[in-house]
Amino acid sequence: MGDFPIWCKLREESREFLRPWEPIWPADDLTRAAFRRRLRRYDQEWRDGRTLPLFVFSAQTDQLLGGVTVSNIRRGVSQAATIGYWMGASHAGRGHMSAAMRLLLPYCFDTLRLHRVEAACLPSNGTSIHLLRKAGFQKEGYARNYLLINGAWQDHILFACLQDDHLKTIWESSHSVGGKLKDIL
């Protein structure tokens, strides 16, 4: 609950920026009660091994920048999960989510032991498409009326990153900039 004030402020300041990319917010979304319910749901889903909700903070200033959720974690023959993410309007386009993905994907593959991480984005969201491709995700298809975004069922482009894709992206990044693998990790 200690993060509620900064989360609420950033979400409120970013409401119009986020509106085209998110479901309609409940009327009480920015209240303490709604945040508490969200935390309870996340806690249960985390204990059940289904969701990993994370905030993205600046390493330099400790300022909240956005959030990432690893959800729909599936075990058994699938070993997969879905990610969703958001960035506060004042922090967008500065590489923060790319940096978060560089930290998140190794965690998904090495610690959570997933084989596949999925994401979906609106075809008009060029920024998200670029982010996912840069992180090693590959386009897999087109899903009609996939998610209810901003009050309307909307088509989405489906992306996935396999553990092998991620390792290849790291290798290519380390060689294209003349760096070493340890520099990327």
Automatic annotation (TrEMBL):
<dbReference type="GO" id="GO:0008999">
    <property type="term" value="F:protein-N-terminal-alanine acetyltransferase activity"/>
</dbReference>
<comment type="similarity">
    <text>Belongs to the acetyltransferase family. RimJ subfamily.</text>
</comment>
<keyword id="KW-0012">Acyltransferase</keyword>
<dbReference type="InterPro" id="IPR051531">
    <property type="entry name" value="N-acetyltransferase"/>
</dbReference>
<keyword id="KW-0808">Transferase</keyword>
<feature type="domain" description="N-acetyltransferase">
    <location>
        <begin position="8"/>
        <end position="164"/>
    </location>
</feature>
<dbReference type="GO" id="GO:0005737">
    <property type="term" value="C:cytoplasm"/>
</dbReference>
<dbReference type="InterPro" id="IPR016181">
    <property type="entry name" value="Acyl_CoA_acyltransferase"/>
</dbReference>
<protein>
    <submittedName>
        <fullName>GNAT family N-acetyltransferase</fullName>
    </submittedName>
</protein>
<dbReference type="Pfam" id="PF13302">
    <property type="entry name" value="Acetyltransf_3"/>
</dbReference>
<dbReference type="InterPro" id="IPR000182">
    <property type="entry name" value="GNAT_dom"/>
</dbReference>
